[in-house]
Design brief:
The complex is a heterodimer of chains A (100) and B (128). Chain A has 100 residues and is α+β, with helices and mostly antiparallel strands. Chain A has four helices and six strands. Chain A has one domain. In chain A, α1 crosses α4. Chain B has 128 residues and is an alpha+beta fold. Chain B: It is found in: Cytoplasm; Nucleus.
């Protein structure tokens, strides 16, 4: 569709992880943020590290495909090197949120 | 369209979400194009961002492109940023030894998916 999509609603992390696995991203796992602060995407993720408020989660498919979820400010940052993964992640996010 | 006190109003979707008391979510994609460092060396005289600008102008001639600095440009709401050292973040480079790869990060919000994914796949095709 050519319509722009504006997402809203409460985000359910468990559902998101389940949908990712249904879509074939079976390696998707919730990471401990402190342990995960290593690797090539670190420099990209540090941009808004000041927002860390205990409601931030990191879902990792692998070292170069990650999803940074900030439940406190309702922001989801997707970092991907693999565009097939990105499209699956996008579809999974849209499955878990409503859009206008 | 929003029905408010018996009036029908046209409002931006973002504003409608707020007026309805719903939680607006921001989804941002940061797509990384991993490219051989040799491309950067070959572009040295002209600059990689100029090359990217020329590709975009040719393919999307009706859209406004803003050059932010030597390494970053904006095409509408899509950001293209060259990250020369993306793949050496945690490894110090030995004297005179160049890294194998560099990165271009293309960022956009969900509402700009159409343009963002197009810019990504076009640059991937043209720069390989």
């Amino acid at each position: 569709s050519n319509f722009k999509k504006y997402p809203y609603g409460k985000f359910n992390l468990d559902k998101f992880l389940n949908v990712l696995r249904q879509f074939g991203l079976s390696e998707a796992k919730l990471m401990d943020r402190d342990v995960a602060q290593d690797g090539l995407l670190t420099s990209l993720m540090e941009k808004d590290a000041a927002n860390d408020n205990g409601l931030r989660y990191l879902v990792e498919i692998d070292a170069s495909n990650k999803i940074d979820i900030d439940m406190g400010s309702n922001r989801i940052n997707v970092l991907c090197e693999n565009d097939d993964f990105r499209v699956k992640i996008k579809d999974a996010l849209l499955r878990c949120l409503k859009t206008l | 369209l929003l029905l408010d006190q018996n009036c029908i109003k046209v409002v931006h979707p973002k504003e409608a979400i707020n007026q309805l008391g719903l939680v607006s979510q921001q989804i941002k994609f940061n797509s990384i194009l991993k490219l051989k460092y040799q491309i950067l060396i070959d572009q040295n005289n002209k600059g990689i961002l100029n090359t990217i600008n020329e590709i975009l102008l040719k393919e999307l001639d009706d859209l406004e492109i803003e050059l932010v600095d030597d390494l970053k440009l904006l095409i509408e709401n899509v950001e293209v940023e060259v990250k020369k050292d993306l793949y050496i973040a945690n490894k110090p480079v030995k004297d005179g030894l160049l890294p194998d790869h560099f990165g271009i990060v293309i960022s956009w919000n969900l509402e700009d998916e159409e343009l963002g994914s197009y810019v990504y796949s076009m640059l991937k095709e043209k720069l390989k």
